[in-house]
Every structure is written in structure tokens, then in C-alpha cells.
Design goal:
This protein is an alpha/beta fold. It contains seven helices and eight strands; from the N terminus they run βααβαβββαβαβαβα.
Length: 171
């Protein structure tokens, strides 16, 4: 048995996809990226919970292909929601709440020691505080700048660009 702390990764899929596009890293291999995230916090990966929604129109096939690839990775659990039509566009519904509920439940049942939240969404500030109050450490990995201030803790903040750099170094 390893002495490393148990790590669970919670991914806001649309936020991660957007960050990877901005970093011009859309072709990143997800399994090595998840492993590098765990290495950054010196932890043992227990599971990845990936939360996202399907996209209508031409992007739908690309998203479905991604979800199928992720489903083949051991210990990756997909939580996929349908987007809701809203006039000429569509909106994600329930993805953030689902992620927050899962993180809280798994923290309260002692399923991990460290949570890694992959998102720059400020909507997760209350759940991060709650999970920390339960006694768990929560690291934030985001592609955006300035997200550390909304979580009030630079010590538990890692920029996605650093993860990608560290992946290239270890390859």
C-alpha cells in the first residue's frame, strides 16, 4: 500500500476544453495529463470524475468522440448532461451542481484525501470551502488567470500551463 494521499480529480469538461483551446493544446493526451495532475500534489490517483454536456450541431460528434475516448480510461467516470435549447443557442444545465454534489458526497464519505478541481469557474468557491471545512485539501487547476484570488489561496492553485510544461519535461 502506498503512503501517498488519495487523490480524486473533478473536471469541469467545458472549462478544461476552453482552457486547452486557449493554450493551443487541444491534442493533449488526457491520461498523462491526469497523472501529471496527481504528481503535482504528490498523490495517488483514485478516480477522475469528468462532468460535461453534449453540444448540439457540428461539435456534437467531436464531443462524443472525446467522451468515448475518456470512457476507455480506467477509473474515469463520465457525468454527461444534455444541453438545453435556448433560442438560437443552448446552455449547460446541471453540470456544475452535479460536480459540486459529487465532490461534497465523496468528501463526506472519506473517499479521498485531496481533491483536484479542474475549473476556473467561480461558482465552485462555496463547494471548495465546504470540502475544505470537511477536512480535505482542494487544489484548483485552471487555464485562466486570476482564479486564485477568488479561491483566496495561492498555495492550492496550479495553472494548467504548468501541468502541460511538466508533462513535456517528463516525456
Amino acid at each position: 500500500m502506498s503512503d501517498l494521499e488519495r487523490v480524486m480529480i473533478f473536471v469541469d469538461g467545458s472549462n478544461l476544453s476552453s482552457a486547452l483551446r486557449k493554450l493551443r493544446a487541444e491534442q493533449v493526451l488526457y491520461l498523462p495529463m491526469f497523472r501529471q495532475m496527481c504528481a503535482e500534489v504528490s498523490g495517488r490517483p483514485m478516480a477522475v470524475h469528468y462532468f460535461d454536456s453534449t453540444s448540439p450541431g457540428p461539435k456534437r460528434d467531436t464531443r462524443i468522440t472525446l467522451f468515448r475516448a475518456l470512457a476507455r480510461i480506467p477509473k474515469v467516470h463520465l457525468h454527461i448532461h444534455e444541453r438545453v435549447a435556448n433560442g438560437n443557442s443552448s446552455q449547460e444545465r446541471g453540470v456544475d451542481v452535479d460536480l459540486a454534489a459529487h465532490m461534497t458526497l465523496l468528501a463526506s464519505t472519506d473517499q479521498f484525501d485531496i481533491a483536484i478541481l479542474v475549473s476556473g469557474d467561480q461558482d465552485f468557491v462555496p463547494v471548495v470551502k465546504l470540502v475544505r471545512d470537511i477536512g480535505k485539501r482542494v487544489f484548483i487547476i485552471t487555464g485562466g488567470h486570476g482564479a486564485a484570488q477568488c479561491y483566496h489561496d495561492d498555495n492550492y492553485f496550479v495553472h494548467l500551463e504548468q501541468i502541460l510544461r511538466d508533462m513535456r519535461k517528463s516525456a
